[in-house]
Amino acid sequence: MNAQYYVSGQHYDYQLTLDKLLRAPLLYNPDGQIKYRDIVCHTYRDMYERVHKLACVLSDLGVQQGDTVAVIDYDSHRYLECFFAIPMMGAVLQTVNFRLSSEQIAYTIGHTQTNVLLVHEDMLAIIENILPQLEHVRHIILLKDKKDSFATSIPITGEYESLLKSADNYYEFPELDENTKATTFYTTGTTGLPKGVYFTHRQLLLHTFSMMTMLGAYENIGRFRSNDVYMPLTPMFHVHAWGLPYVATVLGVKQVYPGKYDPAMLLKLIINEKVTFSHCVPTILQMIINAQGIETINLSGWKVVIGGSMLPKALCKKALELGIDVYTGYGMSETCPLISLALLKKDMMQMPVDKQVDYRTKTGLPAILVDVEIVDANDKPLPHDGKTAGEVVFRAPWLTKEYFKDPDKTKELWRNGWLHSGDVGIIDQSGYLQITDRIKDVIKTGGEWVSSLDLENVLSQHPAVFECAAIGISDSKWGERPLMIVTLKDEWKGKNLSKELHEFMKNAALEGKFPKYGVPEHFEFVDVIPKTSVGKIDKKEIRKKYNALLAQRSQ
After folding, report:
1. What is the pLDDT of residues 527-550, one digit of tens each?
2. What is the pTM of this model?
3. Architecture of 43-199 per CATH?
């Protein structure tokens, strides 16, 4: 160890690095389980040894401090081991979004100059197509679930388990500066190439401790504590699965990793492993609670944090009726991601469920160590009156400091010492933040703004609606008018409900749920609403498709 580097006189400058997190479960629950589907079961003691073995393997392949090691895998025990071993070596873990296009994947791996690539057998075809572009990749390690063999043109250095089996049991991890870069991944925007964000050891630890405090210290809904069973339903490539695997490891909880998201397998794991805490985007929760026979399954005790996009009130109510303790979390790729959680204040805990839904679906209260403000176009703070809307801006010790090798985009992200979200929101007198829209998604009609999220939230409560999205379409008189894209529940499919849904929205506007000038006249019924690579409704793709379609109709 290089401890002397941090000793000055009698003082030791303690560094906040990821190896510190891995010590806790070894002390408090070394025999706690880490499971992968119904295939693998390890203990934390096993995991500690495997982290050392993985570091030995990578070191033998020439990985040094500052090098990048990329992973393309489903949610797995292997991924969890990479979350620790690679950054603890002083290398950088790149979590690759395998749902991007092959060109985008090639760009992100090339942009970081990745040296070693760990890839799941299901994704080998992607790598075969782009291998000539991966000029910096020296070694490819195969991640394999199936026992049968297969042919590939890719030069494989070795298979993960075989390499670990033959590796040494101990690796001398260096004592790192806490500001050492630990992880990186790429976020896609509406235009241009994916943007790289990265986080240091210090940022990841502070994020972990804040998240752990918010979820466990307060007497509240949806608590996550050491007696829980954790299963992520957010891909581990997406902002470190929101940082929850680090929290779960510190707590020493039983962890269950589902691999490829298959509804039958997810339900099987939730039931058989007695999962009590998960997190996902609304579409995943929608998929689960609409599974056949769900009413016969006891889901009481399952706590679920929803992020990525708005939690519709109708979905929240349905989940609560099934016994699922559901509420909202909010953040961005650039924020690691925790910004807020929709926790209840003490006097709200006894509210009727219908009233609780109003707060459980809010964007929430800022997390510990997070500052949130709303500002006008000149970055001047706006009042917290629950009415005045502005752009949401943040400060916290774990926000990404810059976009990797992209100073121009960094200047857009950071202005006047605040990270600018691109979201429009309001803050009420109690401190609750409510995102009302993305700046680019606001529908501008007749000089007034209409929130697409408000329209979606209201329409989703109609009994026929399974899912919906609102966009603005060009209008010669008003500039823009709302268009609702709708998927119907099975028993309503094939029916033309435009008039009924219009009346439903009109009545909601009369009740003050959104402005009267925002009542949509246009409804498009579809089988599937386009989603992004992380399961969010893809407004960019919807706008592109329907503005082109409507232009054709007007010709």
Report:
1. 999 998 888 889 888 988 887 665
2. 0.86
3. 3-Layer(aba) Sandwich (3.40)
